[in-house]
Amino acid sequence: MASLITCPHCGVRPKEEFSIRGDAVPVRPAPNASDETWYAYVYVRDNPKGLIREYWHHTGGCRRFLVVERDNVTHEVFSVTDAADLARSASGEVA
Amino acid sequence: MTIAFVHRHVLEDHITGFETKPNPHHITVPRHPTILTVLAHAGSEAAVGAALQRLDGVTLRFCGPCEWLCVSETVSAEGLLRLVREIEGASAFDHSDGRVLLQITGPNVRKILAKCLAVDLHPEAFAIGRSANMLVAHVSGNLARTGENSFEIIVPRSYAGVVFEELKEMGREFALTAGFSEA
């Protein structure tokens, strides 16, 4: 596993400071979406080899949720972004 | 030549402590520091940060976005709380009794901290005046660099004993001593 994560707020930190909170790829469906859509969102996960995106919670540091883009084969970390910033930029809202 | 021997029990140091006088490596524990947690409302982070910087006798510790600790050994908690609550867009709470401040100094302080911190403390990476939340001896706390060879650690009260013992253990090779501050 990638052992050093560069937190956008705290700098380079060891992985022990973080807890991994799961896949960041699924997008929450609308409340009135079908049961199948909700079932897929809640339970169905891919198990890809290579580049993955996950939520990492910086529990030992700034306590922010981050989206870490990393490779689970080479352990290379491609990007670490604050999840709130990412959500804002996706919805077009200015921080 | 005659040598005068002094009788010294083999467990002398074990019982009274290896060092009784403060060494160059020392942990100072202020008895009643003022520690406030301050949060900035969304959008007012820069303004609140700047206003907190202007407070007299208070040092600011960065915790995360929109979050700081205000530390003072001169201003009372009530007084500081009043000052901080006047700042627009800031919410503050007094954590003086819930946090413990440890001031650690000495020429080899970085070597001591390197044994219980996993963060690069080289002056180029962690300059004087910088602070951040991190794991200190497996406990989530705040570390600040107050000088070339001096650091301040803030940990939750219930973990202070563990962190203190750990720091003492890590500082044994430099005969680290500890005591309450005189003031």
Walk me through this protein's architecture.
The complex is a heterodimer of chains A (95) and B (183). Chain A contains two helices and six strands. With 95 residues, chain A is an alpha+beta fold. Chain A has one domain (4-91): Folate-binding fold. Chain A has a four-stranded antiparallel β-sheet. Chain A has a two-stranded antiparallel ribbon with strand order 1-2. The model of chain A has no long low-confidence stretch (mean pLDDT 91). Chain B has 183 residues and is of the alpha+beta class. Chain B has helices at residues 12-16, 45-53, 77-85, 109-114, 157-170; strands at residues 26-29, 34-40, 59-64, 67-72, 90-94, 99-105, 131-136, 139-147, 150-156, 177-180. Chain B has a six-stranded mixed β-sheet, covered by helices on one side. A four-stranded antiparallel β-sheet of chain B has the order 3-4-2-5, with helices on one face. The N and C termini of chain B lie far apart (49 Å). The interface between A and B is medium-sized, with 16 and 13 residues.
